[in-house]
Amino acid sequence: MPLYDDLKLPLSDEELSRRRLLGLVGTSALVAAAIGTGVSFLRYLEPAVLFEEDTRVGIDRPEDITPGTVLVLAKQHIYVVRTHDGFYALSSVCTHLGCMTQYQREQNEIDCPCHGSRFELSGEVKKGPAPRPLPRLQITIDRGLLVVDSSVHVAHDALLKVS
Ligand code: FES
User: Fold this and answer.
1) Can you tell me whether residue 69 is helix, strand or coil?
2) Per residue in 14-26, pLDDT tens?
3) CB-count exposure of residue 31 (10 Å: 0-12, 13-18, 19+)
4) How many C-beta neighbours within 10 Å does residue 153 have?
5) CA 108 to CA 80: how far, in whole Å?
6) Are the beta carbons of 87 and 80 closer than 8 angstroms?
7) Closest ligand 1 atom to the C-alpha of 128?
């Protein structure tokens, strides 16, 4: 079938607008493909590295914290407890479904507002539904400062002894 152009016939307005539309669609597809390729290439050049938050938190000098003190580090989800013998740190994340617990100074216990679990200050479960004690976290002294590492769980009776 001969084309209009081969016969040198003048193109109708309808044919011209159809050709312009097809040209526009083709150009748009090429531009979209070029942008997609460019974005993929740039993402390929980016290093695929995951930067994790530092889990170590510097607290204070041990000699500045008196026995019986409970420090609540709400932002880091940590409790630091100073006993007469030393220090221990607890996660404040409830072992039931992960709510943030709250230290109740008057009752000297830790409560979970979500489903009513209650914990001893040692982290042991006083009342469920929490299935496990609050995890104890590693606490050390680094360059004279207490440092808690929230990524390291230790035994439930671990204590950093200080003189
Ligand atoms: S999340 Fe704490 S009791 Fe359910």
Assistant:
1) coil
2) 877 888 888 899 9
3) exposed
4) 13
5) 13
6) yes
7) 3
Alpha carbon nearest to ligand 1 atom 1, residue: 97
Alpha carbon distance 12, 15 (integer Å) = 5
Q: What is the pLDDT of residues 83-133, one digit of tens each?
A: 998 999 999 999 999 999 999 999 999 999 999 999 999 999 998 899 999
Q: How far apart are the first and last CA of the chain?
A: 101
Nearest residue to 90 (alpha-carbon basis) of 66, 72, 75, 112:
72
Which atom of ligand 1 lies at the shortest distance from residue 130's CA? 3
C-alpha span between 136 and 32 (Å, rounded): 54
Separation between Cα atoms, residue 145 and residue 62, nearest integer Å: 7
Sign of CA dihedral 147, 153, 159, 161: negative
**Those residues with Cβ within 8 angstroms of residue 88's Cβ, 6 or more apart along the chain or in another chain:** 80, 81, 136, 139, 158, 159, 160
| Smallest CA separation from ligand 1 atom 3, residue | 115
